[in-house]
Amino acid sequence: MLPLVTLRGTPLEQGRQHGAQLKDRVAANIAVYFDRFLRETLLEREQVHEIAAQYAGHIERQSPEYFAGMQGVAEGGGFDFLDIVALNVRYEILYYQFGKMAMAREAQADGCTLFALLPEVTTEKHLIIGQNWDWIPEVQGAVLHTHEPDGLETLAFTESGIVGAKVGFNSAGVGLAINGITTTDDDWSRFSRPAHVRFYEILRQRDFNDAVKVITGEPRACSTNFLIAQPPGFVLDIEAAPDTEGFLAPVEGVLTHANHFVNPAELGVAEPPNPRRIYSRRREARLAELLLAARPTTLESIQTALRDTQDDPFGLCRHRNLAEPPEQHYVTVTSAVMDLDARVLHLTDGPPDQSDYQTFSL
Predict the structure, then answer these.
(1) Is 337 helix (H, G, I), strand (E, B) or coil?
(2) CB–CB of 146/112 below 8 Å?
(3) Is residue 336 part of a domain?
(4) 116 has a pLDDT exceeding 60
(5) Three-state DSSP class for 322?
(6) CATH number at residue 341
(7) Owning domain of residue 296
(8) How far is CA 188 from the centre of its chain?
(9) For 281-336, what is each residue's pLDDT tens digit?
């Protein structure tokens, strides 16, 4: 079961509560990630700390609130501050190395399939978004319910120890889902605002257009795909490469996206070689097929689609591929369905064909 943690006060105070209440889960994630940094990216602990220390100074200037949140997690749980920073910039470290190593055909990143459903294709006439978030099996998640000093609330899934929750929404109805994507131009050393800092800032916007500007307002170090939505029917998928963006909208009321650029040549980007990219395209197409066929969709039909195991173990509902070494194991860590009108979040703790959905609401 995913724990629900309520955070109040300043970013520093929220961080302390996060670190104290999720101490064991944060410690587990530190161990998992430093093992993966070594196994998958060949980075020793000292090297990871060097990267984290460089990023820390930039984050302090870019987002003092986020920096304070990281300080709070470290203080609240009694952790090395650079361990917490490393967790919070793990996207930049891992995805840059994924791309770099893929050029040498040593590693490939894949996983995650998201969706958006416009009100006209849902039985409740609500705006629904969600995803299967596929990642390292041992990662420990949590649900954060934050109460901001200005009255805004957020409800979202995070990896314990990471301040910027990545799948969720706020009390203004702004919702977020994400995919990892890569280009040959990704480079953590550009030190632009990290992905998880952007996730944090998106969920603290009250207006759809302001949320979009968090992504488009400046270049990025590494590529990320963002789905941003807000009732009554605002939906935009943004394929954000380091220096350019592509924009996608729903077709026939449905939008799906996975771990590839839909048209990289049109954007002028190059993706690292990945023999499993075909499965990303299949997942994207399969989820669209299932959701289009289910119109008007219900919560049950959406959850059934997210349990689909076609192309197992590389399907929508991801399972370990035991034929691969442990450092290349990925599963659906959580499956999310978000009703942005009702402000209700349904999440699993593990693959949805093996885990029940828990329901959280604002």
Answers:
(1) strand
(2) no
(3) yes
(4) yes
(5) coil
(6) 3.60.60.10
(7) 113-140+171-196+214-227+238-361
(8) 17
(9) 999 999 999 999 999 999 999 999 999 999 999 999 999 999 888 878 899 999 99
